[in-house]
Design brief:
This protein is mainly α and 102 residues long. The chain has one domain: Tetratricopeptide repeat domain (Serine Threonine Protein Phosphatase 5, Tetratricopeptide repeat), CATH 1.25.40.10. Helices cover 80% and strands 0% of the residues. It has six helices and no strands. Helix 3 runs antiparallel to helix 4. It is globular. The N and C termini lie far apart (32 Å).
């Protein structure tokens, strides 16, 4: 995975690239920087609202930070997104995470 600095350079070239935004969210989540991670996940969602996996990882970051109600809310929105996209794999994973969180 590229470094945060490399990802930020990519983002400067295309500020609405959903994958780069998601990747930055992943990197900040690994560091335990939940607020930054969530901000990048939210930007990624704005660029690609039907990507269920972004909601999944946003919820995992929130869960790791002890923000379970926020994680549940993210999963529920992600389930709707996965349904819209017809992404059964993401739908199943989000459903499993919801079961774990509730």
């Amino acid at each position: 995975m590229p470094s945060i600095e490399q990802l930020e350079r990519l983002l400067a070239a295309d500020p609405n690239d959903a994958f780069t935004l998601y990747a930055l969210g992943q990197e900040f989540a690994k560091r335990g920087e939940t607020d930054k991670a969530v901000a990048f996940y939210d930007r990624s969602i704005a660029a690609n609202p039907d990507d269920g996996y972004t909601y999944f990882h946003k919820a995992r970051a929130l869960q790791a930070a002890g923000r379970v109600p926020d994680a549940i809310a993210a999963v529920k929105v992600g389930i709707a997104a996965a349904r819209r996209a017809g992404d059964n794999k993401a739908l199943n994973e989000l459903g499993g995470l919801l079961d774990e969180l509730e």
